[in-house]
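Per-residue structure
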Amino acid sequence: MISAWASVDATVENFMRFHGYDVSVRLDRPQRMARVEQAALQVPGVVAVEGWAADSATWQRPDGTESESMRLYAAPRGSLLIRPEILDGQWLPASVPNSVVVNSDVLDREPGLGVGDDILLDIAGRESSWRVVGSVPTEAAGPAIYVALDDYGYAARRPDQVDRVQVVTRQHDAASQEEMALRLLEHFEAQGLGISGTETTQVMRAENKLLFTIIVAFLVLMALLLAAVGGLGLTTTMSINVLERVREIGVLRAIGASNLSVRKIVLVEGLALGVLSWAVGAALSVPVSAIMSEQLGLVLIQVPLTHRYSLLAAIAWFFVLLGVAVVASLGPARSAVQMTIREVLAYE
């Protein structure tokens, strides 16, 4: 279960590679990039700014049909604020004009599309030719394509215009980001720049994790309940072992074995069973956690989670099982030392 949680964290961090800024400011209409970037840099605490554009596009297929609408993001070529993992090809090279990168959702919905293909896109009511140069993982928000801002400006007839301002701040905690979002909103309105909304990456990260937290927490609770049931089963097993070895215990007591020695024998047996169960569970947890991460992602966001096996959790679980084994063996050990030599030797 902890590996599933680690997989959630890894998946969310991969999503956030598309959002390397702290605050995103959405303008109510396109503005000149130089103007909005200059306005943002005037706010104390802002250390870097990039103007982006967001739009939608459709692929005009070779057979004359049209694809569903896809989200389009246009960022400056060589942007440091969007650095997703590249699954195939490359990220918007300067040597290829009108290059486009598609996410895995696009490729899933358009099986005939691949890296190296030339495609016809309808952007802002205008058709233009583009070349697919790379593919990236999904952001769990549907089909999306990424283009260079200058290429988009030419295709949409909006040169040097942006409708989003991505801001990097000096401090990156949630409270600082919220405060900066408010400052930017007030400053932009004072500059006569209309704002339709703001978004912080800490809130974005929290929203992404919230989708999984309840489910994973429930699975962890189930694992703890199973451990408790396993402890009860171990107690029963050890009690039966003590009953089956009453005469052996009597012989040990008769030759001088102390209560501590008898108690240690029972506890060591319980610990041995606990270690054996951990070894079997640890071996099975590697493939099972991978399957669980995949299925959990498919159920919740239709995308397999990025699997991360938590070795630290496996080690921690080892000590938890040792504790469970000790607690489960205390009762049977106490019963064993409470038997008198006469009782155990007379036991049939």
In short: The first helix runs from residue 2 to 16. The two ends are 46 Å apart (CA to CA). The mean pLDDT is 81. Residues 23-171 form one domain.
